[in-house]
Amino acid sequence: MNASPSHRPHPAEWTETQSLLPSAERDLPAGRHQFHKEQMMARIHEDLRTSSRTSATSPVAPVKRSNPFLRRSILLPAAAFALAGAVVGGLALTGGGTDGGRTALATGPALTTRIGVADAKGAPQLLERISLAAADTSAPTPRKGQYIYIASKVADSYIKTDGDKSEAVSKELHSRQVWNSLDGRDGWLIEAGETSDKGITLKSDTPFSGAYNALAGLPTDPDALLQRIYRASDANRDPEVPRDQAAFVAIGDLLFESYPPAEVGAALYKAAAKIPGVVSVDDAVDATGRHGVAIARENDTDGERIEWIFDKKTLQFLGERIVVVKATAGNPLKVGTVTHTSAITERAVVDAAKQVPGQVS
Questions:
Q1: Of the candidates 108, 21, 115, which has an alpha carbon nearest to the alpha carbon of residue 65?
Q2: Do residues 189 and 257 make contact, with C-beta atoms less than 8 angstroms apart?
Q3: What digits encode the pLDDT tens for the residues 134-143?
């Protein structure tokens, strides 16, 4: 059986779990970096593609969304994958057509990189500068009825299993476009190799706590914000995942496909500075080849280091990558393997789903 890691999911692709915010719910994703859960990830991935192909003729009821701070498999016990595989086929995913969806196949050997030098003492100062840059922004404030548009490039390396043969391979770099309404009730996703060229619509009957409106309600005091993140992850993470690593993952997920208000973004970086084990990295490269500095944290369990990459001059968030930096018994990939890489290519406010920046609605 061939299996590939699932892409970073849109909220409507997740299953239900506990919410970070009392008034908002969001869904738990299928995950992407736990190699021992490879077959389950393939099942979830296939269920998602199947639902996008068939929902145009067989509409289904939307599901509740839950916590955006728990998107990845490293936060979840194995039982969560069984739940995800069982319910993801019931999502309101339509508009992809019946012949356009296709699997992004492995195209070559696993991605590799030079591992940047980590500096534990440099992280607080770098994060303070990044926080100041995030707070000093001229980005427009979204208006009611508008959408948050995020364009990115993503690629993965993973273990492909065919019968009794396993090998490390990569899934080609491909484009991803996501539109989210401000309350998170609907959106649109186009991802090469994962949806048809036209994409799929994503709807929910409840708002979720990663949407712009909910993010705007988060604490801007870094201590209060970090405590909320810890409480959310403590309630749901896999006990094998260190508490501090779960919190770091949570913050990173909010920085990727989201559009937090400036004061919230700044608070997230200041909160990250308070997590033990966070380091700065002198050089890291995003999915499009842009070099930058990084804020990172290593997960001792699997030897992988999550790196948030920033432009060296402007400190603008460029993307993230996950690199194997230490050999472990539970991770078959070699040191230097890039298990995931991404790059934000555009982030904007638009007037309608499927509208690209600069296009008149």
A1: 21
A2: no
A3: 998 788 899 9
Q: CB neighbours (10 Å) of residue 120?
A: 11
pTM of full prediction above 0.85: no
Catalogue the E-assigned strands of the chain.
Answer: 15-16, 27-28, 93-94, 106-109, 118-119, 147-162, 165-181, 186-191, 200-203, 279-285, 291-299, 304-310, 317-324, 338-350
* Distance between CA atoms of residues 233 and 217, nearest Å: 19
Structure tokens given for 71 = 């998107």
- Using N-to-C axis directions, what is the helix angle for 38-54 and 79-87, rounded to 10°? 20
Distance in angstroms (rounded) separating the CA atoms of residues 185 and 260: 17
Whether residue 208 contacts residue 214, with contact meaning beta carbons closer than 8 Å, is answered with yes
The more confidently predicted of residues 52 and 81 is: 52
Is 152 in contact with 191 (CB distance < 8 Å)? no
**Exposure pattern of 287-303 as b/e (b: 16+ CB <10 Å)?**
beeeebbbbbbbbebbb
| CA angle in degrees (0–180, nearest 5) for 343-128-130 | 25
Angle at the Cα of 324 (from 322 to 328), degrees rounded to 5?
135
Task: Kindly write down the DSSP assignment for every residue of 189-217, as one continuous string.
Answer: EEETTTS-TT-EEEE-SS--TTSHHHHTT
The band of 58, judged by pLDDT with boundaries at 50, 70 and 90, is very low
Contact 296, 280 (CB under 8 A): yes
Q: Which of 331, 2, 5 is nearest to 163 (CA)?
A: 2
